[in-house]
Amino acid sequence: MEAKKKRVLVKFSGEALAGENGFGIDSSILGYIANEIKTLSEGDIEIGIVIGGGNIIRGVSASAGGIIRRTSGDYMGMLATVINAVAMQEALEHIGMDVRVQSAIEIKEICESYIYRKAIRHLEKGRVVIFGAGTGNPFFTTDTAATLRAVEIGADMIVKATKVDGVFDKDPHKFPDAKKIDVLSYDQALKDNIKVMDDTAIALAKDNKLPIVVCNMFKKGNLLEIIKNSSGICSVVR
Fold first, then answer.
1. Alpha carbon 101 to chain centroid distance?
2. Please, are residues 222 and 209 in contact by the beta-carbon 8 Å criterion?
3. Which of 8, 118, 180, 230 is deepest in the core (most CB within 10 A)?
């Protein structure tokens, strides 16, 4: 029998795409991430992706002034994630990969609507599937959307790709004495308010025994090393 392929859901923030600009999409970073994703595909790994929209707009920020309702702000944020998903699709296709974007909100001129069975079929055929528009509902973050999609597609793990080497007891960019936590439980992450992902996402991962791997996506080859060989620099919540 053919060995079962590893299936992962990679989640990264929209801010990661902005680079030093802090806003919009930096094409050089887009290209770098696309090449890192390609190494996973070449490693015979099935890949789902969720990207945040914070490089364009956040629902909470948009509604902070009281003019835009939170519900509308969140839908604006969902549309931002679709913009990022299409950009990522273009970058991956540019280097020869087969990609589909599926949106939780119907935008048929731009991408497919999310259909569970169709997503599974794409993955089985070796296509990268990028899930846009969050869960399709306001008041839920893209962290929760990523965990939900990971559970739905039967992913072996969710990889929270960041700019740091894992989970720390405090911000390593601000505190030189910050200590890395290699392994922590879901309960510890929730109780100690360690911002691995939001609480809803962690609780959903706990209920479905889905490991959360937090790693630095900007160390070349780190993603593949972690997923393929269970090594590399990261922290694991399980």
1. 14
2. no
3. 8
